[in-house]
Amino acid sequence: QVQLVESGGGSVQSGGSLRLSCAASGFSASNYCMGWFRQAPGKEREVVATYRTDGNTAYADSVKGRFTISQDNAKNTLYLQMNSLKPEDAAMYYCAADYVCAILVRGGFRARGQGIQVTVSS
Predict the structure, then answer these.
(1) pLDDT digits (tens), the chain, 122 positions
(2) How far is CA 31 from the centre of its chain?
(3) What pLDDT does 109 receive?
(4) What share of the chain is helix, strand, coil (3-state, %, to 5)?
(5) Where are the alpha helices (DSSP H) in 1-122?
(6) Long-range contacts of 42-46 (CB under 8 A, 24+ apart)
(7) Residue 75: its pLDDT value, please?
(8) Neighbour count for residue 52 (Cβ, 10 Å)
(9) Residue 52 · residue 73 · CB < 8 Å
(10) How far apart are alpha carbons 54 and 8 in whole angstroms?
(11) Cα–Cα 20 to 30 A to 21, which of 59, 70, 72, 102?
């Protein structure tokens, strides 16, 4: 059974840091494009970062220089290190996977986690 489970969310003050984890099971994350997207109430879904099978990464302009996506293939786990958090980063964060990053970037996915809340207070 394909499953993605996020953890590590919570509440932090502006300027703080959080590290999200996404544990994959039922498939090998190293064979997929993995990514994080977020959605806040009243806002469009935003793809925050992607991690390609060749290790290349890409970020939304809104998080460049502050967020880092990484993957531990031995643990089959994707991470998102979020530093210098701002109130506008507050959202539900989802981990997702697809064979093709272009699909992930357009909002499609073959698997998606249940989401985890990130709250940033000013």
Answers:
(1) 899 999 999 999 999 999 999 999 999 999 999 999 999 999 999 999 999 999 999 999 999 999 999 999 999 999 999 999 999 999 999 999 999 999 998 989 999 999 999 999 99
(2) 17
(3) 94
(4) 10, 50, 40
(5) 101-105
(6) 43/91, 45/107, 46/91
(7) 98
(8) 16
(9) no
(10) 26
(11) 102
Going by DSSP bridges, is the β-strand pair 77-82/67-72 parallel, antiparallel, or unpaired?
A: antiparallel
Residues 110, 49 contacting (CB under 8 angstroms)? no
- The amino acid that residue 40 corresponds to is A
Structure tokens at 66: 């502050």
| Angle CA 37–41–115, to nearest 5 | 40
SS3 75: coil
Query: How far is C-alpha 8 from the chain's CA centre?
Result: 11
Q: For position 107, what pLDDT does the model report?
A: 86
- pLDDT of the residue at 33: 97
Q: Tell which residue, 115, 102, 117, has the closest CA to residue 50.
A: 102
Strands 10-13 and 18-25: unpaired
DSSP 8-class letter at 113: -
The tokens describing 36, both together, are 């994080």
